[in-house]
Amino acid sequence: MGIRLKNVGWKFLMILFLILFSFPIIPLIITSFSAGWRWPEILPDQFSLRAWNYVFSPYAGTWEAIGNSIFIAITVTFVNILLCLPAANVIARMNFKGKILIEGILYAPLIIPPFITVMGIHLTFIYLGFTESLIGVMIAHIAPTLPYMLRALIISYQTIGLQWEEQASMLGAGKFNRLRFILLPHILPGIVAGSSLTILVSLSQYLITFLIGGGHVVTLPIILFPFISGGDIGIGSAYMIIFSGLALLSLWTMNTLLKRYYKARITFIG
């Protein structure tokens, strides 16, 4: 009886979550298909595919923006993993002088206002010649995304001591085998969590992409912002739906890959 009530409670919470989640999405969907929705109308008088026809037209640049957004987010994620794996290992499992200061510097992008950070990066990139380029935007995206990956990996490293690796070393396992069979399976959830946050934060960057890219690097936020800040609300709503779908797709992909990995691992061990 208790288990049944618990299941009913979880189902109720899931339904409530879906209802709350759908509230901001439903007006976006209606607006994207409307020919004009004005106050105090409850529903639009007319519906039209005008916004979606524009979004997927050849001259809108939507596919280029989606491709650039995904490419930048994935590249930044891989770079963050390579940077944070050794850094999180040292910070989580070693004690040394200046550790708190180093952590504060690495977490600084979460505290310092983004505009200040972007202006400093912009001036430096002008000197280095990285402005108005894809590689410059990708490097700039590391600043606001790296703290999320670092924190997720630090938490994962803190849950595993050095004893397992020491025992594997005594049994003859080399560095690569210890990394593959002991360390990576344990910190994989942290990698997935950090990657999900990195992708979401990178996809949503407007100010950094606008200043560093100079309008030459087009992503979804770049083409979305003008429409939702005084432009065509219908087209802006369509872009918002695409952006939300892209974010949800990235989270679903990460979750699916993690489940398949552990399922394959359990089958292999069994």
Topology:
Layout: H1 2-32, H2 50-55, H3 62-93, H4 99-111, H5 114-128, H6 134-158, H7 163-170, H8 175-203, H9 207-213, H10 220-228, H11 233-269
Helix pairs in contact: 1-11, 3-6, 3-8, 4-6, 5-6, 5-9, 6-8, 6-9, 7-8, 8-11, 10-11
Q: What would you note in describing this structure?
A:
The protein has one domain (79-269): MetI-like (MetI-like fold, Orthogonal Bundle), CATH 1.10.3720.10. The chain starts with a helix and ends with a helix. It is globular and about 75 Å long. The chain has helices spanning 2-32, 50-55, 62-93, 99-111, 114-128, 134-158, 163-170, 175-203, 207-213, 220-228, 233-269. The longest helix has 37 residues, at 233-269. The mean pLDDT is 82. It has 11 helices and no strands. It has 270 residues and is mainly α. This is ABC transporter permease subunit. It is found in: Cell inner membrane; Cell membrane.
Shape estimate: globular
Rounded average pLDDT: 82
Any idea what the radius of gyration is? Answer: 23 Å
- Domain count: the total is 1
Count the DSSP helices: 11
Poorly predicted sequence stretches spanning 5 or more consecutive residues: none
Approximate strand percentage:
under 5%
Q: Give the termini distance in whole angstroms.
A: 33 Å
The main sheet comes to: none
CATH level-3 fold name? MetI-like fold
The CATH class turns out to be Mainly Alpha
The overall strand count is 0
CATH architectural group: Orthogonal Bundle
Main location: membrane
Keywords: Cell inner membrane, Cell membrane, Membrane, Transmembrane, Transmembrane helix, Transport
Family: Belongs to the binding-protein-dependent transport system permease family.
Domain ABC transmembrane type-1: 66-252
